[in-house]
Amino acid sequence: MAFTRIAHNHYHPSSMLRLKPRLERERRTIEAMIEIFCRDRHASAHQECDECSGLLAYAERRLEKCPFQEEKPPCANCPIHCYQPGVREQVKAVMRYSGPRMLLRHPIFILRHWIDGFKSVPEFHRRKTGNS
Question: In terms of Cα–Cα distance, which of 86, 107, 90, 108 is closest to 37?
Answer without folding.
Answer: 90
